[in-house]
Structures are given as structure tokens and as C-alpha cells.
Design brief:
Elements: H1 2-24, H2 45-48, H3 70-73, H4 77-82, H5 90-105, H6 115-135, H7 140-163, H8 165-175, H9 191-242, H10 251-267
Helix pairs in contact: 5-6, 6-7, 7-8, 9-10
Pfam families: Ribosomal_S15 (PF00312)
Subcellular location: Mitochondrion
Organism: Photinus pyralis (Common eastern firefly)
Amino acid sequence: MNIIRRKELSTFLIPTLLTCTRNYAFKSNLKIKWVRPEKIPCYNPAKSGDLVPMPKLDKTQLQLEFRNSQELANANDLVKKLFSLEYAPRYKTTQLYLRQLIDSTKRHNQDEGSIEAKIARWTGAIRAMQDLVEKFPHNVRLRVKLKELIDKRKKQLKYLRRWDYKKFEWLIDSLNIVYKPQPLDFQSVTRKESLRKLTDKHCEDIRSDRLKTFRKQLEAEQPKFLQEKMCTLEFIRKEQEECNVEVTVAQEEIDKVKDQLTNLHKHTPI
């Protein structure tokens, strides 16, 4: 009994396995090549929406906390150079850049907590971090902090866009930002779906090329067709007049075909 059952199972399973193997190994003859697109990280300026990077500030400027110092105003050049950005750590340059962005968007002189000032401060910090990530791409903590700051700015821009659209437009123009909201329907990039789209595009291109070829063929045959039509109409009208029967072909119809043929010869390149 066991031998019989094994034979029955083998006769049933072998064709099924062969069919599955053939379907899995099937390859299309179409010359369509799909390359997986490069993934853009969320902290990249192309995805975060920052159109300009952090600019290179003049290193001869004084540090932020010493800009209004009267002692440095009367000091010699060597002392001023020691208190400039040239001999200061990098975060001093970032502080000055943040202050410039906040001053360009704040509502009044003492404004530090409005939504415009917050977004300007975050924008300066984001661009400074993006500059650092390019130099140190393996700093995971910096990348995580940068992503959180980008998401926080995007959330505040979303609220501002909803409640005050004019201010939202003015702010993104002032800071050179492109607002990129989250898509409502997220679709992951897969090989199968991409090949389907490429195949549809390939078929549509073939269809359009064949239609163009057929159109050119018909346009090339159009003068011959109009000439035959005009001769046939003239023959029918002449026969009807000679046989004294009702004339069904008007002279205006023949003249119309002649005009079409004349216009066609004019517009046809030699």
C-alpha cells in the first residue's frame, strides 16, 4: 500500500514541481533593464527641503557675545583677531549664523519665541548639522538628532501652513525652504511593480511608434487617394449627364476635392 501511495504522489507532484520551476525561471524577451534607485536619506538637503547650505561666514567678524564690546572697538588689530571667528570653535560660527536667520524673520527686537524665530533657529541648526554629516557620515547620534530636528520643523511648518498661509509663504521664501509634506499614500519601490510600469511604458511606446508610422503612410497615400476620388466623381457626373438621369454629384463637391489636393501639394515639402 505504501509503495502504491508513493507512486501516486510522485505522479501527482512531479508535473506540479516542473510547472512551478518553469514559471519561476521564465524570463521576458523584452530588453527592459531596471536599476534600483538610490535611496536618499531623510537628512539630505534634497529631501529635507533646504535649497541653500550653510554659507561660509567671514572669519574676521567678532564672536556674537563680543559684537557690542566697547573695549574691543578701541583695541588693536591683534586683540580683535584673537576674539574673531578665526580663533573660535565651530559652534561660535553656528551661533552667529543662527542669529542672522532669527534677525531676518523675528517680529520685533526682543522676539525669541515666535514660530518664525523657532523655525529660523531650527533651520540654521539643520544646515550646520548637514554640513557636519557630510564630513562625518558615520556619526549615528548626529544623524538621529538631525532627523528629529527636521521632523520638528516640518510639523511646525504644517501648522503654520494651515493657520496662516501668507506668513508660511513669506517664511519659506525668506529661509529658502521647500515644504515637502508626508505623502498620504506611501508606496515602496519594488522590482516587480517597477517592471510592470516599464513594460506598460514599453508597450505604449511601441503603439505610438506604429501609429506614427501608419499615419505617415496614410499621409503619403493621400494625394493619390484624392486624385482617384476626383477622377471618380467627374466620371460619375459625366455619365449621369450623358444618360439624362438625376445628377447626384455636385460640382461644388468636385471643386472641394480639387482644393484639398491643391493645398496638399502646397504644404507637401519637395
